[in-house]
Amino acid sequence: MRYKPPVTAPDVTGLTMADLEGLLSSRRRAIEAAKWIYGKRPWSLELPPAIPGVNGEAWGRVRASCTVPEVQVTDRTIATDGTTKFLIEMPGGSVETVLIPARDRSTVCVSSQIGCTRSCRFCATATLGFTRNLRAGEIVAQYLVARAHCVERPDLSPATNVVFMGMGEPLDNLDEVLTAVEILTQTPAPQLGNAQVTVSTSGIVPGMRRFLTESKASLALSLNGSTDDQRTRVMPHNKTWPIAELVAVLREHPKRTHFIEYVMFDGVNDSDEDAARVAALLDGLNARLNLIPHNPITSPIALQSSSAERIEAFHRVVHAAGLRTMIRWPKGSDVAAACGQLARIRTKT
Ligand code: SF4
């Protein structure tokens, strides 16, 4: 039977500026409270009796009506390149959050659901089934946990970017994801830029339409095939929302930059003809294509990654067609930092 979380008070990490202003009856207090709640410090599970700059009685209302989300880091694995994977326990199960450091910034990959209802053939999360949607406060808490790790490790660049590419299909939990994006980008804290937050979808047309209308953050579409036959083979819900419909939604927003992810599977979607079809599909769109070698360890069925030579050949074709394209060579492979992978390993042991 599906896990039903108990009805609880709102998460303190799920409060928008408007929520804080309502609870504290003052914009000034809300600003000070946001600076404290979303401030850089070690992750803590307690709300103190007082915080700087906020009247004690007003803060007492926040303490009385909100809880700190029950998130507990039960495992932390650090790869040689600094990529850090957190296994985070929450009511109903565990999710994974990954910190990916780069020279000038670190990116936090957050989960939006415990499990997933979609059945992408290359994804270990799909084999876990679906437990529940995460609340906005639980999504924001993942960012705060990973950012606290960066604060402890001065050799890592600050965590200034967030991608919703962990467990779950974010657009199947859109209300909570939109609230989490609003909080992550709000002033005065955490104050990430809209361009620093990217929500990745496996292609849910109604959710894409709503997200592109209601949010200024970036959307990334996981395309993974140049024909419907190919795409349906690895992402069965392509039968409901085929490629032409997905691209049509993107074309409704010609001024936005659209990120397209293309996981490359050996002999499935990686020929020069596929590259030419992808270039034609995206022609005229303000698109950025990311080519991603498949990580076969995550795959519940026998799908292999395209070779480096094939990926580079594909890149040459789309690049020559004028598409802005990057190859995303994997990071953190020694800690299995890909979608659903740690959860799968844990489930099996
Ligand atoms: S790739 Fe994403 S949408 Fe597809 S099953 Fe995995 S978590 Fe769900």
Describe the structure.
The structure is a single chain. The chain has 349 residues and is an alpha/beta fold. The protein has 2 domains: 12-65, no CATH class; 72-348, Alpha-Beta Barrel (TIM Barrel), CATH 3.20.20.70. The chain has 11 helices and 12 strands. The strands form 2 sheets. A 10-stranded mixed beta sheet has the order 1-2-3-4-7-8-9-10-11-12, with helices on one face. Strands 5-6 form a two-stranded antiparallel sheet. Strand 7 (159-164), helix 5 and strand 8 (197-201) form a beta-alpha-beta unit. The protein starts with 16 loop residues before the first helix and ends with a helix. 45% of the residues are buried. It binds iron/sulfur cluster.
Features:
349 residues; TIM Barrel; two-stranded antiparallel sheet; 11 helices; disordered C terminus; binds iron/sulfur cluster
Helix-strand layout with pairing:
Layout: H1 17-24, H2 27-37, H3 56-65, E1 72-78, E2 84-90, E3 93-101, E4 106-109, E5 113-115, E6 130-133, H4 136-152, E7 159-164, H5 174-184, E8 197-201, H6 205-214, E9 218-222, H7 228-234, H8 243-251, E10 258-264, H9 272-281, E11 287-293, H10 308-320, E12 324-327, H11 341-348
Helix pairs in contact: 1-2, 4-5, 6-8, 9-10
